Amino acid sequence: MHIGTAAPTTEELTAAKHHFIHHKSIKEEYNVGAFEKEAIQCLTILFKSNDIVIMVGGSGLYVDAVNKGLDDFPVVEKGIRESLNIDLETKGLEYLQNKLKELDKVSYQSMAIDNPHRVIRALEICIGSGKPYSSFLNKDKNKRSFKTITLGLTADREIIYDRINKRVDIMMKQGLLKEVKTLLPYKDLNALNTVGYRELFNYLDGTWELDFAVSEIKKNSRRFAKRQLTWFKRNENTFWFDYTKPIDTIINKLNEATKS
Fold it and tell me: Is residue 93 part of a domain?
């Protein structure tokens, strides 16, 4: 899954020590809770020999899990998720979205409802606990033993979207379709219900034409980028820099922030 996940290149991996790159099998069950636990364990070790560790992230939920800790949700019956996954397959995402709107309007209006994993997770809590998923959010969380300094890069939306479109074209030229073909036996796994894979699965099963599938990858990637921007903009403590800003300027701000 090197192409579809846009993993760092061999040169990039050699230039700096990376963690959590292709360290899990798609067959393993993995979630944000497991990531939080493993990331904190890793940071505990790294901080013994490093004053600063850099986390580069796309998913705001996973970033916040490390920086702030996770909300504490009740344990619910496993069969609820299995039933919701069947509903997703047989009735579609819109059915689940409407169900969430009925049970927890707050979550419906605030979360990424285009993401089936998030919708199913919220519904699972609603059904299993009898309470809205949103009622468990923003309670007391684990305190962190480290300070977080958040840096963000910005660009005009037209530039971001143009780069996304070009990036998808590059990935197709690199062999994304061939990569997806090798994953066909596993297409029903949660790990592959993601942008770049599910669209090409629809092409391979004859549902879509290839050009349309590629256009959908671009569209869904742009939507994901928009949600990312919305999520990260909520952090008022972020230091934002235009992507053309000289790196020295950003490093100076980082050094300044570590001393304050």
Answer: yes
CB atoms within 10 A of CB 206: 7
Summarised one tens digit per residue, pLDDT across range 147-156 is 999 999 999 9
Tell me, yes or no, whether 190 lies in a domain: no
52 near 258, Cβ under 8 Å?
yes
The answer to whether 150 and 237 are in contact (CB under 8 A) is: yes
User: How far is the C-alpha of 20 from the C-alpha of 26, rounded, in Å?
Assistant: 14
The residue type found at 203 is Y
Q: Is residue 112 part of a domain?
A: yes
If one counts the domains in the chain, the total is 1
| Residue 101 counted as domain residue | yes
Structural domain span for residue 97: 78-136
- For the stretch 241-255, pLDDT in tens is 999 999 999 999 999
Q: Are strands 151-154 and 239-242 parallel, antiparallel or unpaired?
A: parallel
What is the pTM assigned to this prediction?
A: 0.76
Maximum mean pLDDT: which of 32-36, 112-116, 176-180: 176-180
Residues with Cβ < 8 Å from 127, sequence gap 6 or more? Answer: 76, 80, 84, 103
State whether residue 153 is helix, strand or coil: strand
> What's the rounded Cα separation, in Å, for the pair 209 and 200?
9
pLDDT digits 0-9 by tens, 81-105:
999 999 999 999 999 999 999 999 9
- We report the CATH number of the domain holding residue 110 as 1.10.20.140
